[in-house]
Write the structure tokens for this entry.
Amino acid sequence: MRYNLTDLRLFVAVAEAHNLTRGAERVHLAPSSASHRLQQLEGALGTPLFVRRARGVALTRAGEALLRHARQVFAQLEQMHADLAPFAAGVRGHVVLWANTHATHSFLPDDLAAFLRANPQVGVTLEEHTSPEIVMAVARGEVEVGVVAERVEGAEVELIPYRADRLVLIVPAAHALAAKASTRFADVLDHPFVMLHAGSAIHTFTMNAAAALGRHLDVRIQVRSFEAVCRMVGAGVGLGLVPKSAVSTGGLREPPTVVELDEPWAQRDLQVCVRRRTALSGFAAALVDSLVRRPE
């Protein structure tokens, strides 16, 4: 069966307005024409989509299912337009890069800026995911290039060294832990934490590290950047777990104190992840070459 986008837009508009006339107005159709189109759609599907009532319409169960799918269709169309827009603007190449939180907020902004300046004909889409998600997506061929901090056993990918870094604990300057040079993660779990937002790769990693010890973190607040974590920790809100490269103290009235983490997993060496470097497309290969080139 072929679906007409005008009919689907009309259906969504009427479903959201709960009224045929108002829904028709949203898509600039006369009520009579809208009614005829919806009747044809219901006939083609072989099931009613609406229950007609005195003061409007309500969706049937079939209508609810169609509304869910129609919204997904229009969301995908919007994404398609967004993905194609760079080509209309004269950009002749595009690379999708998946990276974990660590890389996204530390090294990649400067490195991608340098790549884009050197390659004005290329656009990059940067998406944040956890390292295991990235490795599996690269292995399946869903994305060409990723930046990760850990390997996944059994995944057939190539890992190329990118940057070396460590996760560190940051604490308020007046906190008792500030006098320590290093500490174990298990020894700080009774304290409240400032975290990046749920869904960020480092949030997932930290929560899993606590869960592996049979503990649950006391998260006082979630923020959107490592700089905000540093500000909150410096102000005494709680402790933070951040990459050493992302620790921000300059310009802060109350900078946090860095305490090394005595954990093997604290060493977070970032690596570029590809399925096979020799098989990369031209622009993806150029991006990888740019990323793994040692900074001067």
Notes: The longest strand covers residues 93-99. The mean pLDDT is 92. The radius of gyration is 26 Å. The chain has three domains: 5-88, 93-164+272-292, 167-266.
